Every structure is written in structure tokens, then in C-alpha cells.
Amino acid sequence: MASIFSRIVAGEIPSWKVAEDGRFYAFLDINPLAEGHTLVIPKKEVDYIFDLDSETYSGLWEFAARVAKAIEAAIPCKRVGVAVLGMEVPHTHIHLVPLQTEGDLDFRKEKKQLTPERFAAIAASIASEFNKQ
Ligand code: AMP
């Protein structure tokens, strides 16, 4: 069965998209640690990041760096933190989280509650910065 993220890529499940190309897709995490918390995935469904073929692996990180630059431009933050967990969804994804302090990357902390309008505005502003590159 296709992963929830493959279903997002296929358009079967909605997402707050921030960037896409032929091989990769980036969208807002629905349970964000901070405004602008984004997931970057390969469209190819592989559970574990270190099982990706080397071309997809390096392409994913290059794409994530471009998304991180767009997040930095759109969201006030000191820098963008990176995490790879995959404890919940078996489809490789990189978490990009705008940071003010190191505690902002603590996955045990309470997630932000945002309205659909706020998600849409954040996604649009990151997408706009991405499209300027
Ligand atoms: P993990 O697999 O441990 O890295 O966690 C999966 C992440 O995906 C969590 O931060 C979830 O909030 C996020 N997530 C799960 N389903 C969705 C979805 N439909 N749209 C956006 N983010 C999601």
C-alpha cells in the first residue's frame, strides 16, 4: 500500500506544498515544532534514508538545502535545523525546522496549533522565496 506521503505526492491527500520538482516534494508538517516546519521527501517511496540510491540521496539533500534557504528568507529564524527520524511514516523525509533556540528541535515538545489560513500563508511565503531562486 502506498505511504501517506506517496498519496500526498499523487494529490490524493491534501498538503501545504512549498516546493516540487520531478523527483522531490516539500510540504509543511501538519504538527509543526515551529512555524515553517517543512518535510522534504523523494517522490520515490523508500522507507529508510540510508537505503536510497546515491543519486536520489544526494539530490534530496541538495533540494532540501534550497528549501532551507527559502525557509530562512520567509520565516524569521537564526538558522534552519535538520532532523531525520522516520519513526512514524515509512517514507524517507527530512525535517527542516526554523530555529530560535536549540530547544526548538525537541520533538517531545508540544506542537504548534495553526489555523488552515496560517498554514496556507506560511506555505505561500516559503514557495514564493523558493520560486525566486
Ligand atoms: P517521523 O516519521 O517520526 O519523522 O514523523 C512523521 C512526521 O510527519 C510528523 O512530524 C507528522 O506530524 C508528519 N505528518 C504525518 N502525516 C502528515 C501529513 N498528512 N501532512 C504533513 N505532515 C504529516
Tell me about this structure.
With 133 residues, the chain is α+β, with helices and mostly antiparallel strands. The chain has one domain (4-132): 2-Layer Sandwich (HIT family, subunit A). Helix content is 33%, strand content 19%. It contains three helices and five strands, in the order H-E-E-E-H-E-E-H. It has helices at residues 4-9, 54-74, 116-132; strands at residues 17-20, 24-28, 38-42, 79-83, 94-99. Strands 1-2-3-5-4 form a five-stranded antiparallel sheet. The radius of gyration is 14 Å and the shape is globular. It starts with a helix and ends with a helix. The model has no long low-confidence stretch (mean pLDDT 97). The protein binds adenosine monophosphate. The site of adenosine monophosphate has 13 residues, from loops.
- What Rg do the Cα atoms give? 14 Å
Mean pLDDT reading:
97
The fourth-level CATH homologous superfamily is: HIT-like
Largest sheet: 5 strands, antiparallel
Total count of helical runs of at least 4 residues: 3
Q: Report the end-to-end length measured between terminal Cα atoms.
A: 36 Å
Q: Assign the CATH topology.
A: HIT family, subunit A
Quote the beta fraction: 15-25%
